[in-house]
Design goal:
By secondary structure, this protein is of the alpha/beta class. It contains ten helices and 14 strands. The longest helix is centred in the C-terminal third of the chain and has 17 residues.
């Protein structure tokens, strides 16, 4: 991973709220080789609990491992693939768990309110630092899809293609509701201490519960039935139980493992940014037409967190403005997690789409 300082006292980051904020560091990883014209760059956007480590090896695989590499969707023999941890995250880029240089303590809840647009602005500064003027494509799923769409809305002249996957132009009340219940789980934990907890004493029970709630929405009824049915296993759960449904122990495992790699305040800030995201109506075209930008929109049939209807609304908005757009709904039983699991069809779609864009 590489760390870059993109905002300091002399050139602060001006947030969408109007607040000037510094210092800001961003962490990124890169795969493949940058060509001389710097015209083969693809920016990958991670989901809200992801990070810059999109690809790796068998020992330390990345979150989109199957799609990145020689001959894969994001072919590293052809493209230079970048992925950065977002502003507000907890994997190297400045976020609530970073030390405030003024107090020498973590920012905690004093970290400024941030938006999806602010995250894109940090990435824009990173590209400027790398002297990359135009992206061949920006791609991502879930929150990553929102970031990809925000790039199109904010800097349409700086990209040739956008691949939003399993995402939306704005959160529905139901999506906001799930996030709020998760946030309440965190803030109701006595260890949260109004966001000013010590890093080794974060609200683990609340954060684990938030992850458990979220993980239910990532799966589908069919995938849960296939994986767990009503099978039970012996496990000490407490409450006098000797047996538990496998789905219960699975969710407990997911929650317990999540607290070891994520920060509770980042969970609050990033989910709030997702809830505030809104490119509905003409907002997607606020900074100019997208007539020169190509879109590949992908959804998954069993995804009830970001249902296909929301992707179809993206397509309708683009078609209404005569934007070149290809849409595919992939048949899958994996629910929202399908964008991380259903790789075969995505590889085929993305590979041929990028070849078309490169020829255009």
């Amino acid at each position: 991973m590489t760390t870059v300082l993109i905002a300091d006292e002399s050139v602060p980051l001006v947030l969408e709220s109007g607040q000037s904020f510094y210092p800001v560091e961003v962490v990124y990883e890169a795969y493949g080789h940058l060509n001389e014209a710097k015209s083969n760059v693809i920016l990958l956007e991670h989901a809200f609990s992801g990070d810059a480590h999109a690809a790796g090896d068998e020992i330390d695989p990345g979150w989109w491992q199957e799609l990145i590499g020689p001959g894969k969707a994001f072919d590293t023999d052809i493209y230079y693939v970048l992925c950065s941890n977002v502003l507000g995250g907890c994997k190297g880029t400045t976020g609530p768990s970073s030390l405030n240089p003024r107090t020498k303590l973590p920012y905690g809840a004093s970290f400024p309110i941030i938006t999806i647009s602010d995250m894109v602005e940090v990435q824009r500064r990173l590209l400027d630092h790398l002297k990359i003027k135009v992206l061949l494509a920006v791609a991502g799923g879930s929150m990553g899809g929102m970031l990809a769409l925000q790039w199109a809305a904010k800097y349409p002249h700086r990209l040739r293609a956008v691949i939003p996957i399993a995402t939306t132009l704005k959160h529905s009340p139901q999506q906001i509701a799930f996030n709020e219940v998760a946030r309440q789980a965190i803030t109701s934990d006595l260890s949260w201490k109004d966001g000013q907890y010590e890093q080794d004493k974060q609200p683990e029970r609340g954060l684990a519960l938030a992850r458990m709630i979220g993980h239910i929405t990532y799966m589908s009824e069919a995938s849960m039935e296939a994986k767990f049915a009503r099978k039970k296993k012996t496990i000490p759960l407490g409450f006098g139980q000797k047996f538990a449904f496998e789905v219960e122990s699975y969710l407990l495992y997911r929650g317990e493992s999540f607290v070891k790699r994520f920060d509770a305040n980042s969970y609050l800030y990033l989910t709030r940014a997702m809830d505030e995201f809104n490119l509905a109506g003409d907002c997607l075209f606020a900074n100019g037409p997208l007539s020169d930008v190509h879109f590949l929109v992908i959804s998954f049939k069993s995804d009830w967190l970001y249902p296909s209807a929301q992707s179809q609304e993206i397509v309708r908005r683009l078609v209404s403005q005569n934007v070149d757009v290809t849409y595919c709904e992939i048949s899958s039983t994996y629910g929202h997690d399908a964008f991380l699991i259903e790789t075969k069809e995505q590889i085929h779609l993305i590979k041929h789409f990028l070849e078309k864009v490169a020829r255009a």
